[in-house]
Amino acid sequence: MKATLIVKNAAQVATSRGASKAPLTGDKQGKLAVIENGAVAVHDDKIIAVGSTAEVLARVDSDAETKVIDAAGQVVLPGLVDPHTHVVFGGSREHELTLKLEGVPYLEILARGGGILSSVAATRAASEEELVARGIKYCRQMLAQGTTTAEAKSGYGLSTEAEIKTLKAVKQVDAVQPVDLVPTFLGAHAVPKEYKGDADRYLDLVIDEMMPLVVEQNLARYCDVFCEEGVFSIEQSRRVLTAARNMGLGLKIHADEIVPLGGAELAAELGAVSADHLLVVSDEGIKRMAEEDVIAVILPGTTFYLREDHYAPGRKMIEAGVPVALATDFNPGSSPNNNLQLIINIACLYLRMTPAEVINAITINAAHAVGRASEIGSLEKGKIADLAIFDAPNFDYLAYRYGTNLVSRVIKNGRLVVEV
Ligand code: IZC
Ligand code: ZN
Questions:
Q1: Residues of 121-141 as b/e, b for ≥16 C-beta within 10 angstroms?
Q2: Is 183 in the pocket of ligand 1 (CB under 6 A)?
Q3: Which is nearest to 241 in space by CA: 299, 167, 233?
Q4: The pTM is what?
Q5: What is the pLDDT of residues 108-133, one digit of tens each?
Q6: Residue 3 near residue 44 (C-beta atoms within 8 A)
Q7: 331 touches ligand 1 (CB under 6 Å)
């Protein structure tokens, strides 16, 4: 077959293989197929060959129209997948930094009407067009850093109108720039001030009014809930997620981040695709997640930024057979970072994951966490041609260097969209 694009001479093409049906667990999470002097050939938006440069060039045809990229001295990975972001929001929260440094805890800032609620005020005040413009800007930053697919949550509207506005903005952002967005409805992100002290009545609105509209208008693939002390309890989270499941949405949960309420166990009970955060997950929660194949989406950038005293037990979860993915948690409060390369560094250094485990966590396992693993997350024939190319002699180098964008090129749907 004729190639429309060939990436050749790469120092390494590094990818998982054969894990499109189920995420990688245990020892397999630490294995990458590494092809030295590798190449990837693409026809239109699909990968048609992956192998050594000699093999690939022998196998595919090319002509004067074929775009050829020489990746000598560079590493080619699948386009990175960020499976937990809150990328559409109004305002920003730099003013809370001082409070934080004075020692006011995250949940205390929220209880005082700041935190998420200050982003809610700004998101409600923003027009859909403003939200779209900002979402595009943030997605372009992500793309420039190697991310080609991201999950995108609502949750700063907390009224029917503003939640729908946010999800419509997500849809538009998805349509007009290269990063693919997988939308998640997070109406249960906090209790808005109009319902202060009456979380159950707010959840009536989420379940009876917002969720049916979201489903009817096909605005989300997943439903999520912030299950945390002072936000939504286990019983309330179960109620939201059960309703979502009955309406055909996939399930995600912000679980066991600050107080160990048992969100991981709830995720396993309900068949959630992922439980996210998990700093204080219990041993039972880990066991149940492994049994039910719930993906742990760990967000170590948030742990870093909140200066929490320990990270999620990534190693322990891998050893217990839980598939681990990593994400930025990009949001205006607890993680204003949308660069997955920084997550590579933090995960290696503080979760003690190996570079190979981390790369699988932000490619194939992350693709599973957003329900897209049959199409993306690895470099294999037939998959969508999303590639991130790094100015790095090998993949370990990505965990070693930090603070510099090492991306040299990004290919999305077979098209060169970033060239540094
Ligand atoms: O805006 O603080 N944890 N949601 C749950 C967040 C953090 C985002 C925020
Ligand atoms: Zn989050």
A1: bbbbebeeeebbebbbebbeb
A2: no
A3: 233
A4: 0.98
A5: 998 888 899 999 999 999 999 999 99
A6: no
A7: yes
